[in-house]
Design brief:
By secondary structure, this protein is mainly β. 6% of the residues lie in helices and 52% in strands.
Length: 458
């Protein structure tokens, strides 16, 4: 049996130190996992102005109007990397993302259908889509005997985003789209709830070695609205210049859970997880767009409103509210990407081949005073490489699988995409931290991501 109320109060105090920082992780830039499609990731995530497949559900709802027919996209991210820490007092620590490769991996699924293709000719300007992504789903862990053991030894936020979406093509040049963002948790991803763990320390009046945990789950909602405009098109009606604006609203996910000690519930607790609003402006140009080949360059700028996360107040079952100011800052995300495609080349008939590359700059929103090692909040420079193939017509995938069939159940095209991203983080020295003097020191990190994507076109 767990000890009395006095010890429970001490554990609650301990969790104030940890939980406020951990759940603040959901608003930190690292936990916003940007690559949600292999095509986009290969181009440095610069895709809002040119997206033309089912992944428009995430990157720009208006882009669904360019996804003719029935499309599906499914894929996953293989994430690895390390975090190293050198404290002001000589302490050191090394963390990772829940293993050599983070598990479960952040994944994505999209499906879109143009209503005209489905036989509703009067609604041919309407395209419906749905997606499931994990845009806030990274895990992190540190050694249980390291300097952060009384702050965090592991944390996870397996939050998913369910995205029903509709797009409307106003004319050949202009489309609009809107989608809901339903943020919730799924049991197939880890424990199915937000979770942070730490090892108790005698300094807090608790015997060393006691495992303390906070967990919580809930559902929140937001909205994404997008516009895509092509002021200049070629003779085939394909964009040569495309502009886009996307707005993602702020969302609040109320997490209700409990504080546990060695698996025994001490007290119920809750906290509001605030996800930021994001405004994206994008510009794409095709210097080459002909029947044989295409070359596209795109530039995207995002404004990420992390300042909405002013505090992370913890509400306890007994009515007590623990005030936790955060004072985060709004930051930019800048992406530049390019793609070169060969369409039905003579050296590989019935195929399309693409190569991609890009760069992304991501700002750091968290001040030193509220920095927490359970989040990797450092300025990042991301370099991307990618490639893709689309097999159609008489082509055969792996020389065996026909890429187009006469049956309505068989796709007209099968595509495979791969991408690799290396995230280089600027080193950061934290001083004057309010969480604990232990946090003060220098942080360095690197993250590498491999993406796989499968496209089916009907």
């Amino acid at each position: 049996m767990f000890p009395g109320r006095g010890v429970a109060a001490v554990i609650v105090t301990l969790m104030v130190w940890s939980v406020s920082g951990q759940l603040g992780e959901a608003g930190a830039q690292v936990i916003r996992f940007q690559p949600q499609g292999a095509r986009a990731a290969g181009q440095g995530n610069a895709f809002a102005a040119s997206v033309d497949d089912a992944s428009a559900v995430h990157y720009n709802p208006a882009g669904l109007s360019r996804a003719r027919g029935l499309h599906s996209v499914v894929g996953t991210n293989l994430v690895g990397g390390t975090v190293t820490f050198h404290g002001q007092t000589g302490s050191e620590s090394r963390g990772d993302f829940n293993g050599t490769v983070s598990w479960p991996p952040p994944s994505f699924f999209y499906l879109s259908a143009n209503l005209g293709t489905l036989g509703l000719s009067r609604l041919s300007a309407v395209t419906l889509g749905v997606g499931v992504t994990s845009p806030y789903g990274l895990n992190i862990r540190y050694p249980i005997d390291g300097p952060f053991r009384t702050i965090v030894v592991s944390s996870a936020l397996p939050l998913i985003d369910i995205k029903p979406t509709v797009a409307y093509q106003i004319n050949d040049s202009l489309s609009v789209g809107v989608g809901a963002d339903i943020y919730t948790f799924a049991g197939v991803l880890g424990a199915g709830h937000a979770e942070t763990k730490l090892i108790s320390d005698f300094t807090f009046g608790i015997p060393p070695g006691l495992t303390v945990e906070f967990n919580g789950r809930g559902t929140g909602a937001g909205v994404t609205v997008g516009i895509q405009y092509a002021p200049l098109r070629n003779a085939d009606g394909l964009p040569l210049v495309s502009l886009a604006v996307v707005y993602r609203s702020r969302a609040v996910v109320p997490l209700k859970g409990a504080i546990l000690a060695n698996g025994v519930k001490v007290v119920d607790a809750s906290i509001d997880l605030v996800l930021p609003h994001i405004v994206t402006g994008a510009f794409a140009i095709w210097p080459i767009r002909a029947s044989e080949r295409e070359w596209k360059v795109e530039f995207d700028v995002e404004y990420v409103g992390w300042s909405v996360n002013r505090d992370l107040d913890i509400r306890l079952q007994n009515g007590m509210i623990v005030r936790q100011p955060q004072n985060w800052n709004d930051v930019p995300v800048i992406a530049l990407g390019t793609e070169y495609r060969w369409l039905n080349p003579t050296w590989l008939p019935s195929w399309e081949v693409a190569v991609r590359t890009g760069y992304t700059y991501t700002g750091d929103p968290v001040p030193s005073q509220t920095f927490n090692p359970s989040m990797l909040s450092l300025t990042a420079h991301t370099f991307s490489l990618g490639a893709g193939v689309m097999c159609k017509g008489a082509g055969r995938l792996f020389g065996l699988i026909p890429c187009s069939g006469t049956s309505s159940w068989w796709p007209r095209g099968i595509g495979l995409d791969v991408a690799f991203q290396e995230w280089f983080y600027e080193s950061r020295t934290v001083a004057g931290n309010l969480l604990s003097p232990t946090v003060n020191g220098t942080y360095r990190a690197s993250v590498h991501v491999g993406l796989l994507g499968l496209h089916l076109f009907y």
